[in-house]
Amino acid sequence: MDQNTKWVLNIRVVLLLLLSHVTSALEVPLDPKVLEGLPQPPTITLQSPKDYIFDPRENIVIHCEAKGKPSPSFSWARNGTHFDVEKDSKVLMKPGSGTLVIDISGEKAEAYEGTYQCTAHNDHGTAVSNNFVIRQSRSPLWPKEHNEAITVQMGVPLVLMCRPPAGLPPPVIFWMDNNFQRLPLDKRVSQALNGDLYFSNVLPEDTRRDYICYARFPHTQTIQQKQPISVTVLDNSPERERRPGFMMPLGPTSTKMVLKGETLVLECIAEGLPTPEVQWQKDGAELPVSRMSFRNFNKMLKISDVNEADAGNYHCTATNILGAAHHTIKVTVKAAPFWVSAPRNLILAPNETGVLTCLVGGDPKPKITWFVNGFHIENAPEDHSRKVEGDTVILNNVQSGSSAVYQCNASNEFGYLMANAFVSVLAEPPRVLTPPNQVYQVITNNPALLPCATFGSPIPAITWFKDSQTSIKNGDTYVIHENGTLEIHVAQPLNSGKYTCIATNNLGIKENHIYLEVKESTRILKQPEYKVVQRGMSALFECKVKHDPSLVPNIMWLKDNGELPDHERFEVGTDSLTIKDVTDGDEGTYTCIVNTTLDKDSASAMLTVVEATPTPAIVYEKPDQPTDLELTDQTERSVRLTWIPGDNHNSPTQKFLIQYEDLLHQPGVWINLTEVDGTSTTAQLNLSPYVYYSFRVLALNEVGYSLPSQPSSQYRTNPAAPDENPSDVQGAGTEPNNLVISWTALTGFQSNGPGLVYKVQWRQKGVEEHWSSRTVANASQLVVTGTPTFVPYEIKVQAFNDYGNGPESEVVVGYSGEDLPETAPESVQVLVHNSTLAEIHWEPVSDSTVRGRLQGYKVYYRHNRTLQDAEEKDQQEQVLMFSGNRSEGRLPGLQPYSLYSLFIRVLNNKGEGPPSPIKTFETPEGVPGPPSFLDVIDRGLDSLTLKWGAPMDNNGRLAGYTLKYQPVNNTIELGPVQVMNLQANETSFTLENLNSSVLYKLYLSAKTIKGSGPTITEEAFTAMDSVHTQPPVETGKVLPVRPAFGTVNTSVSEDGAVISWEYFGHHKNVYVEYIVDNSKEDWKKELVNGSHSHLIRGLKPATSYRVRVVARDPVDPAVHSTDEVLVSVPAVPSRQVDIATQGWFIGLMCAIALLILVLLIVCFIKRNKGGKYPVKEKEDAHQDPEIQPMKEDDGTFGEYSDTEDHKPLKGSRTPSNGTVRRDESDDSLVDYGEGGDGQFNEDGSFIGQYSGKKEKDTHEGNESSEAPSPVNAMNSFV
């Protein structure tokens, strides 16, 4: 598949994916409650493989399972015609399934060979299976043959042919002898893929009479044997050595075709003497190491999971000492059909449009054929809503009853694919699948996910509400996912509450409630601390925890990440761990872990146990130096050293260190030679030649080393040839035409004798047979000139002295010097992914033009200008390095809507090659940067004037601005957001119709066609209202500013007085203050921040209070308040039952009236006795001629002076003028809220609560003018 075809295929994939999203695929949920009653066309769920080879000794089982609603029925076709299963007694179809079980016992199995196909059908469509090719496995006998004995001369090549009979499936081939022992295979003797046995050259030990080829047939597990082959190898005229040649494949070239996804197996078997080695290479590319393996002693190359990149020329090279042979295998990669995008089931609502796509790849390009319910689409009933366009079927305005199953068949010469996809037309109202009233808990600052799984056709639209009022939109705080789930990125306590998701389509609406609880995180406030405790004492670790009150913490302690010891000494408290009677075993790390159902926290501390009381210290010192060194058992390369140890000073000697001084090469330098155990007093020392030795010994205990002993007598060893060669031999050129060979020279100690020199040898690897050499002395490198550029060399460096040469040196491979690369990368292509990312592709340079070790590719790119600028700007060039043999790379961090240019250089260790031709490309538009500033330049009572600056980076053509604003009330809660879209040329705007004295939060972002950029915010208050206070402000003074209070309402209940108000200020502290009317006491106040109503408790009955709401700000000395409101508290709780009409009450009132009459008579009698009554004015007011004043002596009424009787009688009626003083009646209806002072709540909450009527006298409007109610009359006797 060429590059253009790939691009076209990729574009078609994108277009089809976009088209498929026009109608979203509706998935049927697996919930049985939802599935019940939903019609569904058949779907094949299980089927046998396309190629089915059966064992004639077992039954044939062809699987075919399907699902649907209603359950589908099954039928079969064999060899293209209907197969009547019921008429064949040997064939059984499983109940509720289409699976066939064919009993072939006693029957000819060949009769059931053929091509089968299963069909599943219900009222809504028909699904079909693949074609199953059913074949019987076969293991034929080997034909009788007579194999001639083979006689060959030693060294010639030989092929023993196997040629097994064709079986089904093909047999497995192997060679054995008469004893059933496998014949050994190696790089000289190998078995080819076709089973033949190849000898690159024969040897006398190949003579045998039992070369037997075996074929094992897998299905029947039978083995067939070829007649033995006899081979005799003669050595009377052996073959001479020869160059390699290929036995298989023949000729200089061959071809191989492999299918994509399969395993490529290439084979090269060579002959030659000596036996050649086989190597593999691929033109222009490295072999894929991760998918590649070599088999059969490098004669076979296997590459798994083949793709288009594996096509090309593969070279196998056979090499021996006489030369090489080459063979090229041209590999082509084809592809059976494979899915790019298989058709998917569609569930559509009536009048919707759907798309079925059958996107496949393959080489050659597969042919697409569509079927409907098993019939070719051209032969299916005509459907005007259906349109076929190659690999796409478009269904327009589908209608009920048009459900069907569509089949897509894609085939080429290498195979076929078939897929079923049903189109089900459903009309279903929404259903919410998430259980109702679920409670979700989450820890503060963590994400919260509230699910709302739904089903319906058409697909329901999902909307969310909080607390059944606030509509939730996608924004910074909330994200509504496609599946309906509501996500809160960072949950806060204010997010707690009731959430409602509503699913809607044109057939109905369904809602579900979910509750979210945001909990406080669990934290360890006081962590355990590091403790140092004496043995036998106690250790205390604290672990104080802060957690959400609704969560129950579980505290667990660990020791060294394991459980605490099960011992009573360990006491776990509520917030502590106590360890009593500490022992050494208690040392370790103790961890406190706090778990709740939602989160956890942990903290650790270490415990160190020390001695309870220090014991007297033992004095420890370094040992004394050894003495009396003696050398014995002297030889050329060894000597025995003996010494006497010194005092160890209470610390046993651990070891002895033996050092030597080389008086010939390094006088005055002592070098460690060996160490021996502290219990030894002698050591056998291995020595080197040509050294003047002197030894000394040091003793070591826990305190340290002793002083060195006195040196031993000198011991000289004789010179000898070197024992070793220089180390770290390397070869690396510094110039294109040289090779620098370097090494680490031997020391005088390593030289073993005088006259040390180095023999340096080199030759070009794989080209030169003879070594070049040079001898150098007193040097550690050699420069070889005149070398080709960057070719491998084999290098050896060997040491010599006057007494001989060192051992044979190892061969090291180095490279001559590098030169700058010759060529530049070609075919540079730029694929722009988005506004900030581009992908570069190029054709890598060939290895021969790199002229060095490839380090990678450097991409130089420059931002020329933005597409809005006419002139280019001088921008700094940027460089990206892509290491290794790369052919692509990515350029991140590009500036949107800009023009860029780039070129590429290849890089080796020497430097960079020439640049590729300059390539220019453009980046598309992106979202703009934030506006450069946002200022509030004018504040009005109901307006704010804004000014802003354009973004520093437009990143495209500026389309305008989005301005959002919302009020912030005194509880820091945000009000509803208002959104305004502004033109791109606007840089100022006035917000009107705002509330005064209110803080507004402003959000401004710029936008292009790609969307809105980052938002900048600002906060500002509107101006405050100004009012006059009493007394009036003097002329020339500034009016005080106070917040805007709204209406103040009051009401009285049994629990107290309820005060409510409106307030739009920004002050932090708001109080309700109250005082008894006409009192000089201080005002009482109660803090009511964050509320607009308050209940005042504990008020005295039958008392009036003055109440006001006050706002104070710590930074503002002024006090702002409402007008004072008078609130009257009743004496007794109100009663709702009207007892004035009760019979028993009327009787009681009559008795009371009679009693009053008796009392009046008594009063008259007392007055006749001389008591003084102040009744003269009352009598005048009544103008009753029958009532005359009487004196005490003459029986007339005078003044009554008794203090007690001076008060009016309880329950007596009011005077005729209708006035009663406030201090003369404790039972006035005024105290119950029915007086003329207008103390009613606005909602009329006191109306109808009392039985008496309310009237006002024309000259005493604020006093009660009617007789007390019967309730008050009764209360007056209590």
Please outline what is shown here:
By secondary structure, the protein is mainly β.
* Straight-line distance between termini: 111 Å
Tell me the structural class.
mainly beta
Beta-sheet strand percentage? 35-45%
Tally of DSSP helical segments:
7
What spatial form do the alpha-carbon principal axes imply?
extended
Question: How does the major sheet shape up?
Answer: 6 strands, mixed
Mean pLDDT, all residues:
82
**Low-confidence runs of at least 5 consecutive residues:** 1-25, 1026-1043, 1171-1278
Number of strands: 95
State the helical fraction. under 10%
Write down the Rg.
Answer: 54 Å
Domain Fibronectin type-III: 625-720, 725-819, 824-926, 930-1026, 1042-1132
GO molecular function: cell-cell adhesion mediator activity
Transmembrane segments: 1144-1165
Region (Disordered): 709-734, 1174-1278
Question: How is this structure best described in words?
Answer:
There is one protein chain. The protein has 1278 residues and is mainly β. It is 5% helix and 44% strand. It is built from 7 helices and 95 strands. Strands 2, 5, 6, 9, 10 and 11 form a 6-stranded mixed beta sheet that branches. Strands 12, 14, 17, 18 and 19 form a 5-stranded mixed beta sheet that branches. Mean pLDDT is 82; it is low at 1-25, 1026-1043 and 1171-1278.
